[in-house]
Amino acid sequence: MEQVVFGVxxxxxxxxxxxxxxxxxxxxxxxxxxxxxxxGKEVLPDIAxxxxxxxxxxSLSKEQVIGVGVGIPGPVDSEGIVHGAVNLGWGxxxxxxxxxxxxxxKVKAANxxxxxxxxxxxxxxxxxxxxxxxxxxxxxxxxxxxxNGQLIAGFGGGGGEIGHLIVNxxxxxxxxxxxxxxxxxxxxxxxxxxxxxxxxxxxGAESVLKxxxxxxxxxWDAVKAGDCLAxxxxxxxxxxxxxxxxxxxAVVNPEIFVFGGGVSNAGEIxxxxxxxxxxxxxxxxxxxxxxxxxxxxxxAGIYGAAKLVIG
Amino acid sequence: MEQVVFGVxxxxxxxxxxxxxxxxxxxxxxxxxxxxxxxGKEVLPDIAxxxxxxxxxxSLSKEQVIGVGVGIPGPVDSEGIVHGAVNLGWGxxxxxxxxxxxxxxKVKAANxxxxxxxxxxxxxxxxxxxxxxxxxxxxxxxxxxxxNGQLIAGFGGGGGEIGHLIVNxxxxxxxxxxxxxxxxxxxxxxxxxxxxxxxxxxxGAESVLKxxxxxxxxxWDAVKAGDCLAxxxxxxxxxxxxxxxxxxxAVVNPEIFVFGGGVSNAGEIxxxxxxxxxxxxxxxxxxxxxxxxxxxxxxAGIYGAAKLVIG
Lengths: 311, 311
What we know:
The structure is a homodimer.
Chain A: E1 4-10, E2 14-21, E3 26-33, H1 37-40, H2 43-57, E4 65-72, E5 81-85, E6 90-94, H3 95-103, E7 107-111, H4 112-123, E8 132-137, E9 141-147, E10 150-151, H5 184-187, H6 189-200, H7 216-224, H8 228-252, E11 256-260, H9 270-281, E12 290-293, H10 300-310
Parallel strand pairs in A: 1-4, 4-7, 8-11, 11-12
Antiparallel strand pairs in A: 1-2, 2-3, 5-6, 8-9, 9-10
């Protein structure tokens, strides 16, 4: 009898769901809206109904389902307790029980950035490795830490919150988190734009970016075109990110860093800028970590959620 | 039939060995010299002979032995491969196999600082917790990271090398590791002495430490006596250590930090100095970690080694 698994990635506007063979082959994927009204009370029932409907459509029995893995946009500890999810309107909730009871299947939940890391380890840029740190360079900076094949959720679900490593004690501008000098302020898309605008504001600054609508993509395109000001921005981006990754290496010593998120669409051109400062700061016992690009894009979450429940 | 386990902690001059009941009660402990001559080729045979002799002395059969856990002064990965141990004269060696073949028992090895962390989680200052970071403030700064009850060895055995987190990019003095600005340069016994000597060298500096032989203990004694210069040293110590622990929290989000090593003999008087800067830097999702003192002293290694093999 064929064994299958569901991977669910709950976002603020849509829920992505994937149906996988136990080997990791994606059989089907689809989305449903995330109904966040009334403290998101319909989110889990909607997921349960969608999964029931898919089982019926595919003529699959519940005995064939290994389980349902779920990624949540908020902190989730290693017991599957969600410590609040602001974008869904949720407070503290034992998700494994709550959805498990609705659907009569084994459920395992983890944080969305963490399951994306697990997905990349399983079928993406970190395939074949078991000590992996995923670095998501999007609007903010997130991440996921996998040690010896196991996701590090952390006591309160705060494992892999690497965007809030403080990398500059002299910063005077606040991060969204309330502190000053977080990695996210320099190496996210927003951070890259901020660094570029600061550089452009210097009197006499010359750059192809001048007068453009400055985006992270525009900055990296300018780097590719050999623009000196853009290169100086990339160097600062690399300093903060490379130093932070060296700190992470001294804690968990990964074999590979996998870079995802919008900024990473720039591609491998980022790597020498990061590597330069990583090598300067990394402990000699932790050298040799590889850098790779994420491969699963927006599907990383459903892959990782499926892997979470397969174990 | 009573089940027992051996915990072995290999140091540069002595090997500590403990015989434990499976519940963790220490039945006996003793030491043998570490014979490092000829590339330390007798170290493992000596351990095997000592364990055989103890089994005979206690009339225990090998069937009663769950296994032998071993702590090594060098990097050990999660497969038990030692990536060199300079103080023993060892190169790369598969310790689980090498000692296992000599003694005919299940063997599991890990880094010595990592097993000390495991020991403190099992029977010491971290008892009852499963997300623990041990911070050893000795001549250097070492550590061990435990997530969900599992030791994080890291790809090359460099997990928990927290003494080499770079906390000061402006430092011009080199750390033993070759980089500049490592945590170890400020928060080890050596680091505290260095900070104190720098403060004392300022013209007009007044302190009870003046003219004394400055040791880490003398500095903390002076802090306890309300010495203003010593308090400024403690504040710097706390800034670097507290900020580094906040970085560690954003990676693995521990529930408790357990402080051991000679500097920690100062006791809880250290905590407010560390807490002040930890709270300033820690991500809001990782707040609330406890601080505690290590309790097992030099026995942490044998306890942790025993726990490693019990699992």
